């Protein structure tokens, strides 16, 4: 894990924290709750000024942010209605979810999403796929003569191999082909891989919006299911801390779109996690 990966992980967290705090600020204004200070960034101040009741400042590193709402006065937090406080604490959550959604839309319309078919987009240097003779553009239709419907199905078959040789059933230039390949285990994730990057397909803007909404809602549902299983003891606790986030960032730096996809996932996860009815989180402040 290099210094670049660490910096990218910190950058992602900082940008999402900035989005979260801006959500607080905008919703505080909408709820007519006085904001004493909005500080964008960390480090020494570059510029600072007062406008109406709010002090604004921009700091040298423009990620992370800080919002301070008034605690006394006619428009303070304590005097605000339940609805106004709910709107305030929902602000960060809403903005994190929207930020993830927008990233998905942009990715779909520019870089594209992984296709439903198992298409070889590129090959990692020195990995089993290259040694076995796979080419960019090959379509994988089966593993050990068992058909695979999508990338998830294919990845499952590779994990089930346990590192033993498998036969890949391909279509190349319209002709069927079978190659034998031995997956290798990644030292960090312990997952078995053959060293390919799945092909992607750009979408029209309307299709990208539909796909982004579906992906966002599916992800929210999956996170809630995971949290429910964690609470009921039917699944192990798998909440990524800072080290886990940096590790994921290091695995998402091969392409710019991969990094932003990772950021979208992290933003949605941050939004959902903050909805939990725990006193220190936004969800807890909405309830208590």
Q: Hey, roughly how much beta strand do the residues contain?
A: 15-25%
**Count of structural domains:** 2
Low-confidence sequence ranges? none
Radius of gyration: 23 Å
Helices, by number, come to 8
The ordered string of helix (H) and strand (E) elements is: HEEHEEHEEHEEEEEEHHHH
| Structural class estimated from helices and strands | alpha+beta
The coarse overall form would be elongated
Please provide the count of β strands. 12
The biggest beta sheet reads:
6 strands, antiparallel
End-to-end CA span: 41 Å
Helix proportion: 40-55%
* Arithmetic mean of pLDDT: 85
Description:
The protein is an alpha+beta fold and 288 residues long. The protein folds into 2 domains: 3-112 and 227-287, no CATH class; 114-201, Roll (Pdz3 Domain), CATH 2.30.42.10. The chain has helices at 3-30, 82-109, 128-132, 151-160, 205-232, 242-250, 256-273, 282-287, and strands at residues 35-51, 54-69, 113-114, 118-123, 139-143, 146-147, 166-172, 175-181, 184-185, 192-193, 196-198, 200-201. The strands form 4 sheets. Strands 4, 5, 6, 7, 8 and 11 form a 6-stranded antiparallel beta sheet that branches. A two-stranded antiparallel ribbon has the order 1-2. β1 (35-51) and β2 (54-69) form a beta hairpin. The protein is elongated. The chain starts with a helix and ends with a helix. The relative contact order is 0.15.
